[in-house]
Write a structure and sequence with these properties.
66 residues; mainly alpha; 2 helices; 0% strand; elongated
Length: 66
């Protein structure tokens, strides 16, 4: 694994923890996506993709294309 490769480590004990983490990741994703829509900066687009990936790891039904 390269030093810049993203990874996600979570401690989820029950369904409630999972729902809270999904909600948190959704908020993070929407914040970054909103910033991307306003700025169209390449580094923000990369962050949008990362947040979408993290959200998909928690909720496999979540899909996003940019």
């Amino acid at each position: 694994m390269s030093p810049k490769a993203p990874y996600l480590i979570l401690k989820i004990q029950d369904e409630r923890d999972l729902r809270e983490e999904v909600r948190k990741k959704q908020d993070e994703f929407l914040d970054v996506y909103s910033l991307y829509l306003q700025s169209s900066l390449a580094w923000v687009k990369d962050d949008v993709r990362l947040k979408a990936y993290e959200l998909h790891l928690l909720d496999p039904s979540f899909t996003f294309q940019i």
